[in-house]
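Weekly modeling sync, notes
Attendees: S.R. (lead), two postdocs, one rotation student

Agenda item 3: backlog of single-chain predictions. S.R. asked that every request posted to the team notebook include the full sequence so nobody has to chase files. The rotation student volunteered to paste the first one in as an example of the format we agreed on. Action items at the bottom.

Example entry:
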Amino acid sequence: MKHLFFAGALALFSLPALASPANSFAFGAPAAAAKADRSVEIIMGDMYYAPRSLQVKAGETVRFVLINKGAVAHEFSLGDAAMHARHQQEMIAMQGQMDHAAMGHGSMQHGAMMKHDDPNTVMVAPGKRAELTWTFTQATPIEFACNVPGHYQAGMVGELIIGQ
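Predicted structure, as returned to the notebook:
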């Protein structure tokens, strides 16, 4: 039974990689922190980000310093609303797999073990810090959001405007 769970989890984690080329996003690409033009600190609380909106320029490389001051794990993910909707469905599927595996062995911390390797996303444990550095290439509005099930719907989303 354990082997089936791990095989299913591996297949689920592989789906995003098969859907599009690695590091291919219309609004930009991951970058090395040393290449950043500036750093922006973002506080992650339980169901909020501070600041709630950001403005960057096309061609700018930004190092996001993420500080989770909340009681549960939160995610920082860059993308448009459609991308976040797809990611939320993946997160719900991961949660369902974890719930099935736990089968009554106590509840897991909300967001725990929902890890993946999407280059536009970072999961941050409570009380921890993480970083994501990104070069924005195209002037377009996107969002930064937490796609842990229920968090986006509770208002954990911010506006990121990529200007000229």
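Discussion: group reviewed the output briefly. Strands lie at 28-30, 38-45, 48-50, 53-57, 61-68, 74-79, 121-124, 129-136, 141-145, 157-163.
Action items: rotation student to repeat for the remaining queue; S.R. to check formatting next week.
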